[in-house]
Write a structure and sequence with these properties.
This protein is α+β, with helices and mostly antiparallel strands. It contains two helices and nine strands, in the order ααβββββββββ. The chain has one domain: minor pseudopilin epsh domain (minor pseudopilin epsh fold, 3-Layer(bab) Sandwich), CATH 3.55.40. Helix content is 27%, strand content 23%. The strands form two sheets. Strands 1, 2, 3, 4 and 6 form a five-stranded antiparallel sheet that branches. A four-stranded antiparallel sheet has the order 5-7-8-9, with helices on one face. Strand 8 and strand 9 form a beta hairpin.
């Protein structure tokens, strides 16, 4: 007569395995949350660079002045935003290229929100500014020099442990330079 061997797990073994998995997941989740929170500035820098590169490419491809407007938080949106505009054929005020009335939103650049708690400011500390690319893909001479140096990071006075990062745009070539964080 043959003897049967059990081919499964007992209830006790299954409960023990499930409890070990729950304990391990419970210890890992806080570490993953802490790690993913520190990437907020890095992802915001990549998003800003992506919008600037898209605007430059649009300017070159369609031979038009294209601007990326950086907008501060408002009552409706608590996050800083970016929008890509093209210059209208007929300027409302030809002396002021930075006047938003002289621009219209292009479909591809309708807008992006940065993560809550982050801000984008230019070298002068303004959070409402624009970077203008001309039809050759260079930063337009009407664009103030302060707008070509951008700081991306936690809002001033916040308790975040994240360090801000700097992005600079070459006026001569339109290329984007990112400065490494100091450790």
């Amino acid at each position: 007569m043959r003897t049967r061997t059990a081919r499964g797990f007992t209830l006790v073994e299954l409960l023990l395995a499930i409890s070990i998995i729950v304990l391990v997941v419970g210890m890992i989740v806080p570490m993953v949350r802490a790690f993913s929170g520190s990437g907020g500035v890095d992802s915001a820098v990549n998003e800003v660079k992506g919008y600037l590169l898209m605007a430059r490419q649009e300017a070159i491809q369609y031979h038009r002045d294209i601007a990326v407007f950086f907008l501060p938080p408002t009552e409706l949106t608590q996050n800083s935003r970016m929008m890509v505009f093209e210059r209208q054929d007929r300027l409302v005020n030809a002396n002021d290229l930075a006047d938003i009335r002289n621009w219209r939103v292009i479909p591809a650049g309708y807008g992006a929100n940065l993560r809550r708690g982050l801000e984008v400011v230019n070298r002068s500390g303004d959070n409402l500014f624009c970077v203008i690319y001309n039809a050759n893909g260079y930063v337009d001479s009407a664009c103030p020099l302060a707008n070509t140096c951008i700081r991306i990071g936690p809002k001033q006075g916040s308790e975040s442990g994240e360090r801000p990062q700097a992005v600079a745009i070459s006026r001569a070539t339109g290329s984007i330079l990112q400065f490494e964080r100091r450790r």
